[in-house]
Protein backbone atom coordinates (compact mmCIF):
# COMPACT_ATOMS: atom_id res chain seq x y z
CA UNK A 1 0.00 0.00 0.00
CA UNK A 2 2.79 2.41 0.89
CA UNK A 3 4.56 1.72 -2.39
CA UNK A 4 1.36 2.37 -4.33
CA UNK A 5 0.95 5.70 -2.53
CA UNK A 6 4.48 6.74 -3.50
CA UNK A 7 3.76 5.88 -7.14
CA UNK A 8 0.56 7.92 -7.09
CA UNK A 9 2.43 10.91 -5.65
CA UNK A 10 5.17 10.51 -8.24
CA UNK A 11 2.64 10.40 -11.06
CA UNK A 12 0.97 13.52 -9.76
CA UNK A 13 4.30 15.38 -9.66
CA UNK A 14 5.07 14.35 -13.21
CA UNK A 15 2.06 16.26 -14.53
CA UNK A 16 2.38 19.92 -15.42
CA UNK A 17 1.45 22.12 -12.51
CA UNK A 18 -0.94 25.01 -13.04
CA UNK A 19 -1.94 27.93 -10.86
CA UNK A 20 -5.64 28.62 -10.38
CA UNK A 21 -6.81 32.21 -10.14
CA UNK A 22 -9.96 33.16 -8.21
CA UNK A 23 -11.67 36.30 -9.51
CA UNK A 24 -14.30 38.39 -7.73
CA UNK A 25 -16.98 39.39 -10.23
CA UNK A 26 -18.69 42.79 -9.71
CA UNK A 27 -21.36 42.04 -12.33
CA UNK A 28 -23.81 39.15 -12.87
CA UNK A 29 -22.44 36.30 -14.98
CA UNK A 30 -25.23 36.70 -17.57
CA UNK A 31 -24.26 40.34 -18.17
CA UNK A 32 -20.62 39.43 -18.61
CA UNK A 33 -21.57 36.64 -21.00
CA UNK A 34 -23.63 38.98 -23.19
CA UNK A 35 -20.84 41.53 -23.23
CA UNK A 36 -18.26 38.92 -24.23
CA UNK A 37 -20.49 37.78 -27.08
CA UNK A 38 -20.70 41.34 -28.40
CA UNK A 39 -16.95 41.86 -28.06
CA UNK A 40 -16.32 38.58 -29.82
CA UNK A 41 -18.51 39.55 -32.77
CA UNK A 42 -16.68 42.89 -33.06
CA UNK A 43 -13.13 41.58 -32.90
CA UNK A 44 -13.46 38.11 -34.40
CA UNK A 45 -12.12 39.23 -37.79
CA UNK A 46 -9.11 40.98 -36.20
CA UNK A 47 -8.22 37.86 -34.21
CA UNK A 48 -8.42 35.67 -37.29
CA UNK A 49 -6.17 38.07 -39.16
CA UNK A 50 -3.59 37.99 -36.31
CA UNK A 51 -3.64 34.19 -36.22
CA UNK A 52 -3.11 34.07 -39.97
CA UNK A 53 -0.13 36.41 -39.61
CA UNK A 54 1.35 34.25 -36.82
CA UNK A 55 0.91 31.09 -38.88
CA UNK A 56 2.48 32.77 -41.88
CA UNK A 57 5.41 33.86 -39.76
CA UNK A 58 5.85 30.30 -38.43
CA UNK A 59 5.73 28.83 -41.93
CA UNK A 60 8.39 31.28 -43.11
CA UNK A 61 11.01 29.78 -40.79
CA UNK A 62 13.86 28.32 -42.82
CA UNK A 63 15.81 25.50 -41.19
CA UNK A 64 19.57 25.84 -41.26
CA UNK A 65 20.58 22.26 -40.56
CA UNK A 66 23.47 20.62 -42.37
CA UNK A 67 22.17 17.96 -44.76
CA UNK A 68 24.68 15.51 -43.31
CA UNK A 69 22.66 15.55 -40.07
CA UNK A 70 19.41 14.64 -41.79
CA UNK A 71 18.22 11.07 -42.30
CA UNK A 72 15.59 9.52 -44.53
CA UNK A 73 12.40 9.25 -42.41
CA UNK A 74 11.27 6.27 -44.48
CA UNK A 75 13.83 4.19 -42.57
CA UNK A 76 12.33 5.20 -39.20
CA UNK A 77 9.63 3.02 -37.63
CA UNK A 78 7.81 4.17 -34.48
CA UNK A 79 6.77 1.85 -31.67
CA UNK A 80 5.28 2.56 -28.24
CA UNK A 81 5.45 6.01 -26.66
CA UNK A 82 7.83 6.16 -23.70
CA UNK A 83 7.73 9.86 -22.84
CA UNK A 84 5.90 13.11 -23.41
CA UNK A 85 6.98 16.73 -23.15
CA UNK A 86 5.35 20.12 -23.56
CA UNK A 87 5.61 20.03 -27.34
CA UNK A 88 6.88 16.57 -28.22
CA UNK A 89 6.50 12.84 -27.67
CA UNK A 90 9.25 10.24 -27.38
CA UNK A 91 8.88 6.75 -28.81
CA UNK A 92 10.83 3.56 -28.98
CA UNK A 93 11.51 2.79 -32.60
CA UNK A 94 13.83 1.40 -35.23
CA UNK A 95 16.15 3.07 -37.69
CA UNK A 96 17.39 0.68 -40.35
CA UNK A 97 16.40 -2.19 -38.02
CA UNK A 98 18.45 -0.76 -35.14
CA UNK A 99 16.60 0.08 -31.87
CA UNK A 100 16.48 3.85 -31.33
CA UNK A 101 14.59 6.57 -29.46
CA UNK A 102 12.59 9.00 -31.59
CA UNK A 103 11.52 12.45 -30.38
CA UNK A 104 8.59 13.67 -32.49
CA UNK A 105 7.68 17.36 -32.44
CA UNK A 106 3.96 18.08 -32.18
CA UNK A 107 1.85 18.69 -34.13
CA UNK A 108 3.14 16.17 -36.65
CA UNK A 109 2.61 18.56 -39.56
CA UNK A 110 5.66 20.89 -39.63
CA UNK A 111 3.65 23.77 -41.12
CA UNK A 112 1.51 23.78 -37.96
CA UNK A 113 4.47 23.93 -35.57
CA UNK A 114 4.98 27.42 -34.14
CA UNK A 115 8.18 29.30 -34.86
CA UNK A 116 9.44 29.10 -31.26
CA UNK A 117 9.31 25.30 -31.29
CA UNK A 118 11.01 25.16 -34.67
CA UNK A 119 13.85 27.25 -33.28
CA UNK A 120 14.14 24.99 -30.23
CA UNK A 121 14.14 21.92 -32.46
CA UNK A 122 16.89 23.30 -34.66
CA UNK A 123 19.00 24.35 -31.67
CA UNK A 124 18.64 20.90 -30.09
CA UNK A 125 19.67 19.15 -33.31
CA UNK A 126 22.72 21.37 -33.76
CA UNK A 127 23.84 21.00 -30.13
CA UNK A 128 23.26 17.24 -29.95
CA UNK A 129 25.16 16.69 -33.19
CA UNK A 130 28.22 18.30 -31.58
CA UNK A 131 28.17 16.07 -28.51
CA UNK A 132 30.70 13.25 -28.21
CA UNK A 133 30.88 11.98 -24.64
CA UNK A 134 30.15 8.63 -23.03
CA UNK A 135 27.67 10.24 -20.61
CA UNK A 136 25.73 12.21 -23.22
CA UNK A 137 23.02 10.61 -25.35
CA UNK A 138 24.30 9.72 -28.82
CA UNK A 139 22.75 11.62 -31.73
CA UNK A 140 21.89 9.56 -34.82
CA UNK A 141 20.04 11.98 -37.08
CA UNK A 142 17.06 14.28 -37.59
CA UNK A 143 14.22 14.79 -40.01
CA UNK A 144 12.34 17.98 -40.95
CA UNK A 145 9.81 16.66 -43.48
CA UNK A 146 7.22 15.18 -43.39
CA UNK A 147 7.62 15.20 -39.59
CA UNK A 148 10.11 16.99 -37.37
CA UNK A 149 11.91 14.38 -35.31
CA UNK A 150 15.22 13.64 -33.60
CA UNK A 151 16.64 10.11 -33.53
CA UNK A 152 19.05 9.08 -30.77
CA UNK A 153 20.35 5.90 -29.22
CA UNK A 154 17.82 3.99 -27.11
CA UNK A 155 18.54 3.73 -23.38
CA UNK A 156 16.86 0.57 -22.13
CA UNK A 157 17.04 1.57 -18.45
CA UNK A 158 14.50 4.38 -18.78
CA UNK A 159 14.70 7.69 -16.93
CA UNK A 160 16.40 8.17 -13.58
CA UNK A 161 13.14 9.65 -12.29
CA UNK A 162 11.12 6.51 -12.91
CA UNK A 163 13.88 4.32 -11.51
CA UNK A 164 13.90 6.28 -8.26
CA UNK A 165 10.11 6.14 -8.07
CA UNK A 166 10.20 2.37 -8.50
CA UNK A 167 12.62 2.11 -5.54
CA UNK A 168 10.67 4.25 -3.07
CA UNK A 169 10.62 4.32 -0.14
CA UNK A 170 13.98 2.53 -0.28
CA UNK A 171 17.16 4.41 -1.16
CA UNK A 172 19.92 3.47 -3.54
CA UNK A 173 23.17 2.28 -2.01
CA UNK A 174 25.51 5.18 -1.32
CA UNK A 175 28.16 4.07 -3.81
CA UNK A 176 25.55 3.49 -6.50
CA UNK A 177 24.20 6.99 -5.99
CA UNK A 178 27.68 8.48 -6.15
CA UNK A 179 28.61 6.55 -9.30
CA UNK A 180 25.53 7.93 -11.05
CA UNK A 181 26.25 11.43 -9.73
CA UNK A 182 29.80 11.20 -11.07
CA UNK A 183 28.47 10.26 -14.52
CA UNK A 184 26.19 13.31 -14.44
CA UNK A 185 28.99 15.58 -13.29
CA UNK A 186 31.31 14.38 -16.05
CA UNK A 187 28.61 15.00 -18.67
CA UNK A 188 28.03 18.52 -17.35
CA UNK A 189 31.76 19.14 -17.16
CA UNK A 190 31.95 18.29 -20.86
CA UNK A 191 29.05 20.61 -21.73
CA UNK A 192 30.45 23.57 -19.82
CA UNK A 193 33.91 23.03 -21.30
CA UNK A 194 32.24 23.49 -24.70
CA UNK A 195 30.37 26.62 -23.64
CA UNK A 196 26.93 25.00 -23.39
CA UNK A 197 24.37 25.38 -20.58
CA UNK A 198 21.76 22.63 -20.27
CA UNK A 199 19.25 24.66 -18.20
CA UNK A 200 16.95 21.70 -17.52
CA UNK A 201 19.01 19.21 -15.55
CA UNK A 202 16.58 16.92 -13.68
CA UNK A 203 15.98 13.15 -13.20
CA UNK A 204 13.49 12.89 -16.08
CA UNK A 205 16.20 14.13 -18.48
CA UNK A 206 18.74 11.54 -17.33
CA UNK A 207 18.64 8.11 -18.96
CA UNK A 208 19.97 4.86 -17.52
CA UNK A 209 21.74 1.93 -19.10
CA UNK A 210 19.95 -1.40 -18.97
CA UNK A 211 21.83 -2.50 -15.83
CA UNK A 212 21.05 0.85 -14.12
CA UNK A 213 24.74 1.39 -13.36
CA UNK A 214 25.43 4.33 -15.68
CA UNK A 215 23.52 7.40 -16.78
CA UNK A 216 23.49 9.65 -19.84
CA UNK A 217 22.32 13.24 -20.20
CA UNK A 218 19.45 13.82 -22.64
CA UNK A 219 16.87 16.37 -23.81
CA UNK A 220 18.68 19.47 -25.06
CA UNK A 221 15.46 21.32 -25.81
CA UNK A 222 16.37 24.18 -23.44
CA UNK A 223 20.15 23.93 -23.83
CA UNK A 224 22.01 26.78 -25.44
CA UNK A 225 25.42 28.33 -25.83
CA UNK A 226 26.35 30.63 -22.97
CA UNK A 227 26.37 34.32 -23.83
CA UNK A 228 27.36 37.37 -21.81
CA UNK A 229 24.52 39.70 -22.74
CA UNK A 230 21.74 37.96 -20.84
CA UNK A 231 19.51 35.00 -21.62
CA UNK A 232 15.83 34.17 -21.35
CA UNK A 233 14.68 33.50 -17.81
CA UNK A 234 11.75 31.15 -18.47
CA UNK A 235 14.07 28.15 -18.78
CA UNK A 236 13.97 25.04 -16.65
CA UNK A 237 11.66 23.28 -14.19
CA UNK A 238 10.84 24.98 -10.91
CA UNK A 239 11.97 22.25 -8.49
CA UNK A 240 15.44 22.23 -10.01
CA UNK A 241 15.82 25.85 -11.11
CA UNK A 242 18.47 28.08 -9.57
CA UNK A 243 17.07 31.07 -7.63
CA UNK A 244 18.75 33.61 -9.91
CA UNK A 245 16.34 32.51 -12.64
CA UNK A 246 13.40 33.75 -10.60
CA UNK A 247 12.25 37.32 -10.24
CA UNK A 248 10.09 38.85 -7.52
CA UNK A 249 8.60 41.23 -10.06
CA UNK A 250 6.73 39.91 -13.11
CA UNK A 251 8.87 39.78 -16.24
CA UNK A 252 7.59 39.83 -19.81
CA UNK A 253 7.79 36.56 -21.71
CA UNK A 254 11.19 36.35 -23.35
CA UNK A 255 12.74 38.90 -20.98
CA UNK A 256 16.51 38.63 -20.51
CA UNK A 257 18.34 37.98 -17.25
CA UNK A 258 22.01 37.82 -16.43
CA UNK A 259 23.08 34.37 -15.25
CA UNK A 260 25.70 31.84 -16.24
CA UNK A 261 26.46 28.12 -16.35
CA UNK A 262 26.34 27.92 -12.55
CA UNK A 263 22.55 27.46 -12.81
CA UNK A 264 23.35 23.87 -13.85
CA UNK A 265 25.42 23.38 -10.70
CA UNK A 266 22.42 24.29 -8.54
CA UNK A 267 20.23 21.83 -10.48
CA UNK A 268 22.89 19.14 -10.05
CA UNK A 269 22.80 19.64 -6.27
CA UNK A 270 19.06 18.97 -6.18
CA UNK A 271 19.50 15.85 -8.35
CA UNK A 272 22.34 14.61 -6.11
CA UNK A 273 20.13 15.15 -3.04
CA UNK A 274 17.41 13.05 -4.70
CA UNK A 275 19.91 10.29 -5.50
CA UNK A 276 20.98 10.15 -1.86
CA UNK A 277 17.55 10.42 -0.23
CA UNK A 278 15.14 9.19 -2.90
CA UNK A 279 12.71 11.89 -1.88
CA UNK A 280 10.97 14.60 -3.88
CA UNK A 281 12.53 18.06 -3.42
CA UNK A 282 10.10 20.54 -1.84
CA UNK A 283 7.46 17.83 -1.68
CA UNK A 284 3.87 19.02 -1.42
CA UNK A 285 4.53 22.55 -2.69
CA UNK A 286 3.34 23.96 -5.96
CA UNK A 287 5.61 25.75 -8.43
CA UNK A 288 5.14 29.23 -6.98
CA UNK A 289 5.92 28.10 -3.43
CA UNK A 290 8.97 26.16 -4.59
CA UNK A 291 10.32 29.26 -6.32
CA UNK A 292 9.58 31.38 -3.25
CA UNK A 293 11.34 28.90 -0.93
CA UNK A 294 14.45 28.71 -3.12
CA UNK A 295 14.60 32.49 -3.42
CA UNK A 296 14.44 32.70 0.39
CA UNK A 297 17.48 30.38 0.52
CA UNK A 298 15.49 27.40 1.77
CA UNK A 299 17.02 24.05 0.80
CA UNK A 300 16.20 20.35 1.34
CA UNK A 301 17.27 18.76 4.63
CA UNK A 302 20.81 17.38 4.92
CA UNK A 303 19.98 15.18 7.89
CA UNK A 304 21.50 11.70 7.71
CA UNK A 305 23.83 12.45 4.81
CA UNK A 306 27.63 11.98 4.98
CA UNK A 307 29.31 15.16 6.21
CA UNK A 308 31.56 15.53 3.18
CA UNK A 309 28.64 15.11 0.75
CA UNK A 310 26.52 17.53 2.77
CA UNK A 311 29.31 20.10 2.41
CA UNK A 312 29.38 19.53 -1.35
CA UNK A 313 25.62 20.05 -1.58
CA UNK A 314 25.81 23.28 0.39
CA UNK A 315 28.46 24.60 -1.98
CA UNK A 316 26.59 23.56 -5.12
CA UNK A 317 23.23 25.09 -4.13
CA UNK A 318 24.66 28.25 -2.58
CA UNK A 319 22.55 31.35 -3.23
CA UNK A 320 25.57 33.15 -4.67
CA UNK A 321 26.49 31.50 -8.00
CA UNK A 322 30.11 32.60 -7.61
CA UNK A 323 30.47 30.32 -4.57
CA UNK A 324 29.30 27.24 -6.45
CA UNK A 325 32.14 25.03 -7.72
CA UNK A 326 32.82 24.15 -11.34
CA UNK A 327 31.91 20.65 -12.49
CA UNK A 328 35.58 19.87 -12.94
CA UNK A 329 35.98 20.35 -9.19
CA UNK A 330 32.82 18.39 -8.44
CA UNK A 331 34.02 15.42 -10.51
CA UNK A 332 37.37 15.41 -8.73
CA UNK A 333 35.68 15.66 -5.33
CA UNK A 334 33.30 12.78 -6.03
CA UNK A 335 36.10 10.64 -7.47
CA UNK A 336 38.17 11.14 -4.33
CA UNK A 337 35.23 10.42 -2.03
CA UNK A 338 34.27 7.25 -3.93
CA UNK A 339 37.87 6.06 -3.79
CA UNK A 340 37.94 6.51 -0.02
CA UNK A 341 34.63 4.67 0.30
CA UNK A 342 35.95 1.78 -1.76
CA UNK A 343 39.22 1.66 0.17
CA UNK A 344 37.41 1.62 3.50
CA UNK A 345 35.19 -1.29 2.44
CA UNK A 346 37.93 -3.30 0.71
CA UNK A 347 39.55 -6.11 2.68
CA UNK A 348 43.30 -5.84 3.34
CA UNK A 349 45.14 -6.76 0.12
CA UNK A 350 46.75 -10.14 -0.15
CA UNK A 351 50.53 -10.28 0.07
CA UNK A 352 52.31 -11.51 -3.02
CA UNK A 353 55.66 -13.15 -2.51
CA UNK A 354 58.26 -12.22 -5.08
CA UNK A 355 61.61 -14.01 -5.15
CA UNK A 356 64.55 -11.65 -4.96
CA UNK A 357 67.96 -13.12 -5.81
CA UNK A 358 71.32 -11.45 -5.39
CA UNK A 359 71.01 -10.01 -8.89
CA UNK A 360 68.26 -7.74 -7.51
CA UNK A 361 70.42 -6.23 -4.79
CA UNK A 362 70.30 -2.81 -6.38
CA UNK A 363 66.51 -2.87 -6.52
CA UNK A 364 66.36 -3.95 -2.86
CA UNK A 365 68.33 -0.89 -1.89
CA UNK A 366 65.28 1.22 -2.77
CA UNK A 367 62.78 2.43 -0.19
CA UNK A 368 61.34 -0.61 1.61
CA UNK A 369 58.87 1.11 3.89
CA UNK A 370 56.06 -1.21 2.75
CA UNK A 371 58.19 -4.27 2.25
CA UNK A 372 58.17 -7.32 4.52
CA UNK A 373 61.29 -9.55 4.57
CA UNK A 374 60.80 -13.27 4.87
CA UNK A 375 63.13 -16.23 4.66
CA UNK A 376 62.37 -19.34 2.69
CA UNK A 377 63.45 -22.83 3.65
CA UNK A 378 66.82 -22.36 1.93
CA UNK A 379 67.50 -19.24 3.94
CA UNK A 380 67.18 -16.97 0.93
CA UNK A 381 65.45 -13.68 1.45
CA UNK A 382 62.19 -12.91 -0.31
CA UNK A 383 60.39 -9.63 -0.48
CA UNK A 384 56.60 -9.37 -0.15
CA UNK A 385 54.73 -6.51 -1.78
CA UNK A 386 51.10 -5.60 -1.29
CA UNK A 387 48.92 -5.79 -4.41
CA UNK A 388 47.75 -2.47 -5.78
CA UNK A 389 44.03 -1.74 -5.58
CA UNK A 390 42.70 -0.84 -9.01
CA UNK A 391 40.49 2.21 -8.75
CA UNK A 392 39.00 1.58 -12.19
CA UNK A 393 37.57 -1.73 -10.96
CA UNK A 394 35.89 0.15 -8.15
CA UNK A 395 34.36 2.61 -10.60
Describe this structure as you would to a colleague:
The chain is α+β, with helices and mostly antiparallel strands. It folds into three domains: 67-153, Phosphorylase Kinase, domain 1 (2-Layer Sandwich); 160-344, Transferase(Phosphotransferase), domain 1 (Orthogonal Bundle); 348-394, no CATH class. It is built from eleven helices and 14 strands. It has helices at 2-14, 29-59, 115-130, 160-167, 174-193, 262-277, 287-295, 307-316, 327-345, 361-364, 391-394, and strands at 76-84, 88-95, 98-105, 139-143, 149-153, 196-197, 206-208, 215-217, 224-225, 231-232, 256-257, 351-355, 372-375, 381-386. The strands form five sheets. A five-stranded antiparallel β-sheet has the order 1-2-3-5-4, covered by helices on one side. It has a three-stranded antiparallel β-sheet with strand order 12-14-13, with no helix packed on it. The protein has a two-stranded antiparallel sheet with strand order 6-9. A hairpin with a 6-residue loop joins strand 7 (206-208) and strand 8. It is globular and about 55 Å long. The relative contact order is 0.09. Residues 76-338 form the Protein kinase domain. This is Homeobox protein. Keywords: ATP-binding, DNA-binding, Homeobox, Kinase, Nucleotide-binding, Serine/threonine-protein kinase, Transferase. One of its GO terms (molecular function) is ATP binding. Pfam families: PK_Tyr_Ser-Thr (PF07714).
Amino acid sequence: MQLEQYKKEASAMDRVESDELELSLPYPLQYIGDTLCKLTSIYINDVEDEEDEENEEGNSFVFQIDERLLIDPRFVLLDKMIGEGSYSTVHEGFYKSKPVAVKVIQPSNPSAVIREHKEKFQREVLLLSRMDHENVIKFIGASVEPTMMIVTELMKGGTLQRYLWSMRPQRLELKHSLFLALDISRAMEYLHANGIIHRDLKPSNLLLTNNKMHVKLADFGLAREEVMGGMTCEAGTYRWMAPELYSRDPLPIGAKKHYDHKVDVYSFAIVLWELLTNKAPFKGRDSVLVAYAAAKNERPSLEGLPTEIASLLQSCWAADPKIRPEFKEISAYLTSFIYRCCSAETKPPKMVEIDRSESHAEEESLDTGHVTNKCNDEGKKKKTYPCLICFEDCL
